[in-house]
Amino acid sequence: MRCTARVEIHDNEYSLLHELMEAASFSRTAVDSSTGKKVHMPNASYATDAYATPRAALLAAIGAALRVDMRAEIVVSGGDQILTYGCREVEENSFGNIIALMAQSTVPVPSGGFYDFFRNQPEKGSAFGTVPVSESAHSPFWEALLKAK
Predict the structure, then answer these.
(1) Residue 126 pLDDT
(2) Is residue 94 part of a domain?
(3) pTM confidence score
(4) What is the pLDDT of residue 39?
(5) What pLDDT does residue 115 have?
């Protein structure tokens, strides 16, 4: 099965990685399906037809890459599969989730360079919008904030 692999190492020993990947039947060249031309793969990207499954190709890439860097990050794709090894998981509160949480916020946030005071109608004379549900309007923090205006 035709598979592609991308290996990121942190020790910059790419010449050794290239040798080990070649020994594991990976190539740094591939044939472009749209043109039929043989092209060079980007650095640390490889192609192979030597393995029956993407999992077998991943195991071979792991065997080569870990000899260079025990912290290697590897992605192998083939057929309808994308398999990884050593790649960091996406955190639950990534930047995209933070933006979504900001949209639900009861505290004004910058919008186009200006604070969006109209989305959050002031309560108790505060120019800072509504008090978050988790805070009581009678807490010392909010009382001081309301008096400071």
Answers:
(1) 47
(2) no
(3) 0.61
(4) 97
(5) 45
- CA distances in angstroms from 30 to 47, 54, 57, 135, listed in the order given: 6, 17, 16, 60
pLDDT of amino acid 34: 95
User: β-strands 110-111, 114-115: how paired?
Assistant: antiparallel
Domain of 15, CATH number, reads 3.30.70
| Cβ atoms of 45 and 29 closer than 8 Å | no
Helices (H), 66-132: 95-103
Backbone φ and ψ of 100, nearest 5°:
-65, -40
- The answer on pLDDT for 134 being more than 80 is no
Please say if the pLDDT value at position 125 is more than 50.
no
Residue type, 111: S
Residue environment code for 64-94, b if the CB has 16+ CB neighbours within 10 A, otherwise e: bbbebbeebbbbbbbeeeebebbeeeeeeee
Determine, yes or no, domain membership for 38.
yes
CA dist., res. 2 & res. 52, Å (int): 8
Is 51 within the bounds of a domain? Answer: yes
Residue ranges making up the domain that contains 35: 3-85
